[in-house]
């Protein structure tokens, strides 16, 4: 399978086939009472709207009649009708709550959908996050959901506008039939043509809209990478290139958006034209009948008004399908996130108490987009109280090893064992609660320094914070910041130096009061003297602490009991440094490093 | 962050119009089409009146047909005009918004690094993408529609006055009150809309940062924390929208009640007696009813349009706020010459006032030499690098290139002389090729390939599917840390810099690869100048000069052997990092 291109728009829409209707039904069930109220108010609102032309008809005919009969108390008759008008008006007032509740329900749905799918995203594993860039995920959780004419609008306003239209049309037709069935049939002639035209353009809308959403995702991806990597862009003076680069995606979007707009206008025009022609038909036929005296002026006016009243709802009903198609694209994009396979969780997980051993048993894992495996048939054991150093050449799988031990990666074969139990059967959260992890890149989150360290602990306290910060040798620096622990840290902690960020990550892991610590190559940002102090402090805090530390620095090996040598994803050797020095190739590897020192010395 | 000038409303409008002016032709066309179609809309009831008053009572079939045909003609015209109007205006909107996005993005890239440190990426994304989309609303449903509705409203009113000025006046009386009530309510709504938009940007930012840091989230069992943080922002947005929605729609409902059935009652009470008195015809009553019902449509639409315009105005305000920000200094445009040396003279710097990071640092980097910076982390080494790249300006003291202060040189030209390899390796989604040349297509593929060979990255690249064209995942997650290092290295090589600046870049690479890099580094540094923030022994030993930093000051300068003799802290550093070296040295000595 070729490398997933999550950043470029696909040629065609390849969305998972979701049962959209059922999806919507499930969502509605969560707010069932709101939906019911909306239905009731919709019907009331349509009924009220349809009553007015009838009342006008009665009024006109009454006035006409009173004119001809020349009665004196003419206005009294009229006043009575006006009272009815006012009464219907009050009904309309009640019904007018409807758009408000509709709008509110949109917002309620938007929030419900977002939080539901966000939680699903958080449960996904490594394969998911390599397939979907963060810009893409964020687009699907924001742009796809929010506001007209996207998903949350459709789910309530969109559908209920259609319900309102359908009920209005139904009531209108009912009233028209009661008045004059011949004239009613005349008005219905254009309908079949409309439905046929609609089905013809249906699929084109989905593809066009899908392409536009992809163009939007592409824009967001380029924005994200430009702003995140701004230092590099500036350092290599590539601002102009990036402007052109961004212009390209803008151009694509312009085209896709225009395509969507044109298609929508065309559809809109088709229906509008047909109904206007129908209106003219009424003027002709109805006018003819009125001239011939077959219907009253009041009836003629009522029909004219009913037809005007019909135009908007009839135009709107196909909109349901158009915006529905668009909303289905959004639903598909969300379901694509949700349906991505999750790591399976056991029904009754084996509880994990104190972690005595962590093992890899014939563990293999491949990243999928490159040939070969990142880890191949690796077996090793880490015991409580034991320190293991992991060394090896670039790309030999050291970072992957740590992620595997955390259960972050799906093994292609072999297993991870905790206290002899397969991690897949065990209580993963309880296991992770006892492990501290320091990734290569610090990955801090926006908030205060205190927030970031507290993130590591299940029971944060002032004392724990103090101890963790001290172990990571941040105490002095922390007090030098004007806001101290309340200093705000930006996204990815960029206002701190690399070393400070790394030590924050260490403090965070220490705050966990873990039984095992996994250090992924912290040597990049922690110099030898700090490393020494850290190791000493860790020893003091918990002599039983087990840890695994990836390193490229020989000096690290003085703190470990055993060494694991990884090469090309395979565990080539596992033993004490002294034992391994008997192996000629190992000795050569170490000597090379030593050799460099002797040379220069 | 300095602004050029405050973006007041008049200035905002003028600037907005400047985006509109290239397309004034489109605008006029759309506007004309809309005006004409609005006038056509007005004609309908008048034809009805003619039918009711003349053709029907007079049983004039021919006349009726004439009027019906006229009606048909008007409707056809209206249809065509509406189509034309809509496509024109959508195109106009797209053009303007695309230009705004382009300008906004371009301007953001000129802003200094400090701006990006203070603003989350997700927030900036929301500005460029979402706020500009709100501006598009000015064109589609709102801005132009508003004008159309105003024309329609006054058109109707004109007809009323033409028929019966007294009734028209009486009808008019409630309108100003209704409009005033509208504006009052919508003004109260504005802060709620603003809150909603702010929360939206916040949601984007939160989602972005947790998605990027998902490993930490999962490793620390903080899924619930990440979930509830997003949910909190989402809930606040929802609540703001619920409040604004309820206020808005219940107001509208009440207005509709007053403007609909109650207004009808008013009209009929005024007009019916006149009809009975014979002063007005039934057809005229019909016109009053027809128009009367239509009178409030544009009025309420105006209310809706204004809401959209307010939202757009808020978004525009934020957009112009960014466009007003002072870009980073480009320097006085002098072409930099680097032939002798770079000098830091008494340079001090603080990110936040009161927290100095560099304190009167002085040193020189002679051309062709390699200078290494060592010292505990947080002692100011990375900051020195940032200052030399021109990312920040020194607080006091000066940085001189061949005696010329950095501020007087063209910033871009100076940066082009630098090859920067950072601690925080940034790799972009895209191919390896594009990552090496940072999307600068002026750099040939062959040059990029040569650069990869130099840093010994060519073999691992060749093993990837697609070779140099292989796509990297976000932030290069499908490569190992070491491989990422090599790529960022290749960047510097490909751009052929005169001054190589490396910030602890070689530290996390293993011994074998480091030797490869050392060898190619030797080739690279041949004849070039280098400043290396070093953790590796090899870099330190090969350096012509080592600067030992502590607490923002240089406490010693010299070659390795000199410092070993003279500086106990240096000895300590080396002892911890390279224990066997000291033993060797001592045994030799």
Q: What does this entry look like structurally?
A:
The complex is a heterodimer of chains A (601) and B (589). Chain A has 601 residues and is an alpha/beta fold. Helix content of chain A is 62%, strand content 10%. Chain A has 21 helices and twelve strands. In chain A, strands 6-9-10-3-11-12 form a six-stranded mixed β-sheet, sandwiched between helices. Chain A has a four-stranded antiparallel β-sheet with strand order 2-1-4-5, with helices on one face. A two-stranded antiparallel sheet of chain A has the order 7-8. The model of chain A is unreliable at 1-15 and 594-601 (pLDDT under 50). Chain B is an alpha/beta fold. Helices cover 65% and strands 11% of the residues of chain B. Chain B has 23 helices and twelve strands. In chain B, the strands form three sheets. Chain B has a six-stranded mixed β-sheet, sandwiched between helices. In chain B, helix 2 packs antiparallel against helix 3 (61-110) and helix 5 (121-136) runs antiparallel to helix 12. Chain B starts with 8 loop residues before the first helix and ends with a helix. The interface between A and B is large, with 184 and 182 residues.
Beta-strand share of residues of chain B: 5-15%
Shape annotation of chain B: elongated
Largest sheet of chain A: 6 strands, mixed
Number of helices of chain B: 23
Q: Which structural class should the secondary elements of chain A be placed in?
A: alpha/beta
Low-confidence stretches of chain B: 1-7, 583-589
Strand order of the largest sheet of chain B: 6-9-10-3-11-12
Q: What is the overall pLDDT average of chain A?
A: 82
Taking all Cα atoms into account, the compactness measure Rg of chain A is 35 Å
> What portion of residues of chain B is helical?
55-70%
The total strand number of chain A stands at 12
> Strand fraction band of chain A?
5-15%
């Amino acid at each position: 399978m070729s490398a997933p291109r999550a950043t470029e728009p696909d040629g065609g829409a390849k969305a998972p086939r979701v049962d959209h209707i059922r999806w919507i039904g499930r969502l509605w069930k969560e707010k069932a009472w709101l939906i019911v109220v909306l239905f009731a108010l919709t019907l009331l609102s349509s009924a009220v709207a349809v009553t007015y032309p009838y009342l006008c008809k009665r009024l006109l005919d009454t006035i006409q009649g009173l004119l001809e009969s020349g009665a004196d108390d003419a206005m009294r008759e009229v006043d009575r009708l006006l009272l009815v008008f006012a009464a219907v008006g009050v009904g309309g007032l009640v019904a007018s709550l409807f758009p408000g509740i509709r709008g509110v329900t949109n917002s309620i749905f938007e929030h419900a959908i977002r939080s539901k799918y966000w939680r699903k995203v958080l449960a996904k594993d490594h394969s998911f996050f390599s397939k979907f860039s963060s810009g893409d995920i964020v687009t699907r959780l924001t742009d796809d959901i929010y506001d007209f004419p996207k998903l949350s609008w459709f789910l309530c306003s969109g559908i209920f506008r259609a319900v309102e239209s359908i009920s209005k049309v139904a009531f209108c037709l009912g009233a028209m039939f009661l008045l004059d069935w011949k004239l009613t049939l005349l008005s219905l002639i254009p309908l079949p043509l409309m439905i046929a035209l609609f089905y013809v353009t249906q699929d084109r809308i989905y593809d066009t809209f899908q392409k536009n959403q992809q163009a939007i995702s592409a824009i967001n991806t380029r924005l994200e990478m430009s702003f995140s990597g701004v230092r590099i862009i500036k350092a290599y003076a590539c601002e102009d290139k990036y402007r052109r680069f961004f212009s390209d995606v803008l151009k694509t979007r312009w085209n896709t958006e225009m395509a969507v707009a044109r298609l929508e206008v065309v559809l809109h025009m088709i229906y509008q034209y047909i109904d206007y022609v129908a209106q003219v038909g009424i003027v002709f036929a109805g006018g003819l009948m009125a001239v011939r005296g077959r219907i009253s002026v009041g009836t003629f006016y009522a029909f004219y008004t009913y037809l005007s009243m019909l135009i908007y709802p009839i135009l709107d009903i196909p909109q349901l399908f158009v915006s529905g198609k668009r909303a289905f694209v959004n639903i598909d994009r969300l379901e694509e996130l949700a349906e991505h396979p999750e790591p399976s969780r056991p029904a009754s997980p084996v509880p994990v108490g104190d972690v005595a051993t962590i093992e890899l048993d014939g563990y293999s894992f491949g990243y999928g987009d490159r040939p070969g495996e990142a880890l191949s048939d690796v077996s090793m054991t880490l015991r409580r109280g034991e320190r293991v150093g992991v060394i090896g050449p670039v790309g030999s799988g050291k970072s992957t090893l740590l992620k595997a031990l955390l259960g972050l990666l799906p093994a292609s074969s072999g297993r991870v064992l905790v206290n002899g139990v397969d991690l897949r059967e065990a209580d993963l959260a309880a296991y992770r609660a006892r492990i501290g992890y320091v990734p290569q890149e610090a990955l801090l989150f926006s908030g205060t320094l205190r927030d970031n360290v507290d993130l590591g602990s299940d029971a944060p306290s002032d004392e724990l914070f103090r101890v963790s910060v001290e172990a990571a040798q941040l105490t002095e620096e922390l007090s030098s910041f004007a806001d101290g622990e309340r200093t705000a840290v930006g996204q990815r902690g960029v206002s701190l130096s690399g070393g400070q960020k790394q030590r924050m990550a260490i403090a965070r892991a220490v705050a966990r009061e873990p039984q095992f610590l996994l250090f992924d190559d912290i040597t990049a940002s922690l110099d030898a003297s700090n490393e020494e102090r850290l190791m000493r402090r860790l020893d003091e805090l918990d002599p039983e602490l087990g840890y695994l530390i990836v390193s490229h620095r020989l000096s690290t090996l003085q703190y470990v009991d055993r060494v694991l040598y990884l090469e090309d994803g395979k565990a080539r050797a596992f033993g004490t440094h002294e034992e391994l020095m008997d192996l000629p190739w190992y000795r050569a590897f170490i000597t090379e490093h030593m050799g460099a020192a002797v040379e220069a010395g | 962050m300095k602004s050029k000038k405050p973006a007041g409303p008049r200035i905002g409008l003028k600037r907005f119009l400047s985006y509109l002016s290239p397309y004034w032709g489109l605008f006029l066309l759309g506007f004309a089409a809309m005006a004409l179609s609005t006038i056509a809309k007005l004609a309908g009831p008048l034809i009805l009146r003619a039918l009711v008053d003349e053709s029907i009572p007079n049983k004039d079939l021919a006349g009726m047909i004439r009027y019906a045909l006229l009606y048909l003609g008007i409707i056809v015209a209206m249809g065509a005009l509406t189509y034309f109007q809509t496509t024109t205006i959508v195109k106009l909107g797209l053009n303007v918004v695309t230009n705004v996005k382009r300008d906004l993005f371009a301007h953001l890239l000129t802003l200094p690094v400090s701006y990006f440190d203070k603003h989350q990426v997700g927030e900036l994304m929301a500005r460029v993408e979402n706020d500009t989309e709100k501006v598009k609303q000015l064109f589609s449903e709102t801005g132009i529609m508003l004008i159309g509705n105003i024309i329609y409203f006054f058109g109707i009113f004109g007809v009323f006055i033409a028929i019966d000025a007294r009734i028209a006046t009486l009808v008019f009386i409630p309108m100003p009150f209704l409009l005033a009530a509208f504006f009052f309510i919508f003004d109260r709504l504005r802060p709620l809309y603003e809150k909603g938009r702010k929360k939206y940007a916040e949601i984007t930012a939160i989602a972005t940062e947790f998605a990027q840091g998902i490993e930490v989230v999962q490793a620390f069992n903080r899924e619930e924390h990440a979930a509830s943080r997003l949910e909190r922002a989402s809930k606040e947005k929802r609540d703001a929208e619920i409040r604004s929605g309820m206020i808005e729609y219940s107001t509208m409902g009440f207005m509709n009640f007053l403007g609909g059935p109650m207004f009808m009652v008013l009209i009929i009470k005024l007009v019916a007696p006149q009809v009975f008195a014979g002063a007005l015809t039934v057809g005229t009553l019909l016109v009053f009813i027809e128009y009367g019902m239509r009178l409030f449509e544009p009025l309420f639409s105006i209310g809706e349009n204004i809401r959209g315009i307010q939202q757009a105005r808020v978004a525009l305000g934020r957009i112009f706020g960014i466009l007003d920000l002072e870009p980073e200094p480009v320097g006085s445009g002098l072409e930099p010459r680097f032939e002798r040396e770079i000098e830091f003279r008494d340079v001090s710097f603080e990110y936040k006032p009161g927290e100095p990071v560099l304190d009167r640092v002085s040193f020189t980097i002679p051309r062709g030499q390699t200078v290494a910076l060592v010292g505990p982390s947080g002692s100011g080494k990375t900051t020195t690098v940032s200052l030399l790249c021109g990312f920040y300006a020194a607080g006091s003291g000066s940085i001189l290139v061949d005696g010329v202060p950095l501020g007087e040189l063209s910033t871009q030209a100076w940066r082009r002389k630098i090859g920067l390899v950072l601690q925080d390796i940034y790799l972009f989604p895209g191919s390896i090729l594009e990552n090496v040349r940072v999307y600068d297509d002026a750099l040939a593929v062959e040059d990029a390939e040569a650069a990869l060979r130099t840093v010994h990255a060519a073999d691992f690249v060749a093993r990837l599917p697609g070779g140099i064209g292989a796509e990297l995942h976000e932030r290069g997650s499908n490569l190992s840390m070491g491989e990422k290092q090599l790529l960022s290295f290749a960047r510097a090589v490909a751009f052929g810099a005169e001054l190589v600046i490396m910030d602890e870049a070689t530290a996390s690479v293993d011994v074998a690869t480091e030797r490869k890099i050392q060898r190619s580094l030797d080739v690279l540094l041949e004849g070039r100048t280098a400043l290396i923030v070093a953790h590796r022994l090899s870099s330190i030993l090969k350096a012509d000069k080592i600067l030992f930093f502590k607490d923002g000051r240089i406490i010693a300068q010299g070659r390795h052997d000199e410092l070993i003799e003279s500086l106990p802290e240096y000895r300590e550093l080396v002892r911890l990092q390279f224990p066997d070296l000291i033993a060797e040295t001592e045994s030799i000595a």
